[in-house]
Design a protein that fits this description.
The protein has ten helices and 25 strands. By secondary structure, the chain is α/β, with parallel strands linked by helices.
């Protein structure tokens, strides 16, 4: 049985995720270099000039810090452009002052009442940062932020053509299906929720507006399930992926949990709508299966094929099902565009870099493509192979375990023995840091082909489709590719991180050759 095979792999594998599994590397908090101001620091009235890229309203006013009075930029969470506000400076951070909103003296008409009590209290759980905008203002701000990233990189100027922005996809607010919670067991109670912005305080999630209802209901049940068994003083995190077959729960304790604690928690799993419970102890790199009530299965939407995926514990998933479908559709359109431009008569040959568990791979395979996959995490590779074989698509799929940051696919590896590229489309879906090393090898590929076949390479150079959750690093990589001869055809924003400053984009590039001024 497929699921059984995966479970054995989970408990026997000697590998761990490098960049795809939730909690694969325990992130240590960076030392906070901000300097706290005295508690009696006076309040000040100012006007917000604009909302910055981190979602804070920013205004400038003269203020005395120490013995120096000068014009300071004030960063005010929860404020909007044009608002007159009264704030209390809290700390010196970088070249500005972080400040708490004390009073709205003249609110912006675009202001909207937040759906979350934590956000409304201007405390902030570290998640949403834009709930105080109405829908129209929110959408305008997000689109403007995305276009500014491309503008700053020079697109639309000189030889960098301005991209065509496809119609954005706005997903529903309460669609998030994965979450990473913090917990702390005190003498009185078990606290579960999100940690605050730049703090260790844990906020409860009763009024959270971004989580799926089913996930919120599960979180409210976690206390009754875990509190009787967790000893006082224990803390850690709980990663939950909401799958088609139920919740996949991964415990990430800060201190090792005793076997009797894990046994008791496993016995009570039936009280939750969960398909699997695993734990990764702090001294282990391998998730340990504790209990399973049903196979862990994630079924894609029928609109993109309806294939089954078999995620390993804590696997990376797109934030919402709606966004996942939109992203897959964008990738499938890019593949179809390549096929339409060059009628080769053979199945589309695709290299899927950072393939994960196969979110894009399975739909591409089902469309008739031949897909070669690269991924650093062995458990994700195993999940992908299981899904491909179950769908009887295994012969069209080959996989390679590889850390693409340390060892990107080299320019020569894209080519067949005759020196021509053996792929029609390159799919990149890197983590937030982007794919600088891999993009450099694609640039090297373009240079290599020009040296060998200077008069006729555009039709044999693969198209590129890049899926990114960080427009800044995406634009950095795209700029290098455009300089090498690719043309940025289209960019589409898919707003899956609703009411946050984060944005997902899909970019499609086709090879057009370098400008003659660059020597082509």
């Amino acid at each position: 049985m497929v699921t059984g095979q995966l479970i054995r792999r989970v408990n026997a594998s000697k590998s761990r995720s490098k960049n795809r599994i939730v909690g694969s590397q325990r992130q240590k908090r960076k030392s906070n270099k901000a300097i706290r101001l005295p508690r009696h620091a006076p309040e000040i009235d100012l006007t917000i000039g604009f909302v910055g890229s981190r979602g804070d309203g920013i205004g400038t006013a003269p203020y005395k810090v120490g013995d120096e009075t000068k014009d300071w930029p004030f960063y005010v969470p929860g404020s909007l452009e044009g608002e007159q506000v009264r704030v209390k400076p809290q700390q010196l951070a970088g070249k500005g002052l972080m400040a708490e909103l004390v009073e709205l003296l003249n609110p912006n008409p675009s202001r909207s009442a937040p759906v979350c009590d934590v956000f409304a209290g201007l405390k902030g759980c570290g998640g949403c940062s834009l709930q105080h905008m109405n829908e129209a203002a929110y959408r305008d701000w997000k689109l403007n932020q995305l276009k500014c990233v491309f503008d700053k990189a020079g697109f639309g100027k000189d030889r960098l053509m301005a991209p065509s922005f496809a119609r954005p996809i706005w997903t529903q607010m309460s669609g998030r299906r994965r979450v990473r919670l913090s917990y702390r067991r005190t003498a009185q109670t078990l606290i579960i929720g999100f940690t605050g912005r730049t703090s260790h305080f844990i906020y409860s999630l009763e009024s959270c507006g971004v989580l799926q209802t089913e996930l919120k209901q599960l979180i409210t049940q976690l206390n009754d399930w875990a509190a009787p068994h967790l000893p006082e003083g224990k803390s850690g995190q709980i990663a939950i992926n909401l799958l088609s077959s139920g919740a996949d729960i991964l415990l990430l304790p800060n201190e090792a949990l005793a076997d009797k604690v894990l046994t008791a928690m496993s016995a009570g799993l039936n009280s939750l709508r969960a398909c699997r419970l695993c734990v990764r102890q702090p001294d282990s790199e391998i998730p340990l299966l504790l209990a399973e009530t049903a196979p862990a299965v994630l079924q894609l939407e029928r609109a993109v094929g309806g294939q089954n995926l078999y995620p390993s514990p804590g696997s990376f998933l797109q934030a919402s099902r709606e966004a996942e479908t939109a992203l897959i559709q964008a990738v499938l359109r890019a593949a179809a565009a390549r096929t339409e431009r060059f009628q080769t008569g053979h199945p589309l040959r695709i290299m899927d870099l950072y393939c994960g568990i196969g979110t894009f791979t399975l739909p591409l395979l089902s469309s008739g493509a031949m897909v070669t996959c690269y991924e650093a995490d062995q458990s994700a590779v195993d999940s992908l192979l299981a899904a491909a074989r179950t769908a009887e698509l295994g012969p069209s799929c080959s996989t390679h375990r590889r850390d693409l940051v340390a060892a990107p696919v080299r320019a020569e590896e894209f080519c067949a023995a005759n020196g021509e590229p053996q792929f029609d489309l390159i799919l990149l879906d890197p983590p937030r840091q982007g794919a600088a090393a891999q993009s450099a090898q694609l640039v090297a590929l373009a240079n290599l082909l020009h040296e060998d076949m200077p008069d006729g390479i555009p039709h044999i150079v693969p198209d590129i489709v890049m899926v990114s959750c960080n427009p800044q690093t995406a634009v950095r990589d795209i700029t290098a590719l455009v300089a090498a001869g690719w043309r940025l055809e289209e960019v589409q924003m898919i707003d899956q991180f609703v009411r946050t400053t984060h944005t997902e984009i899909v970019s499609r590039l086709v090879f057009a050759g370098r400008q003659k001024t660059n020597g082509w």
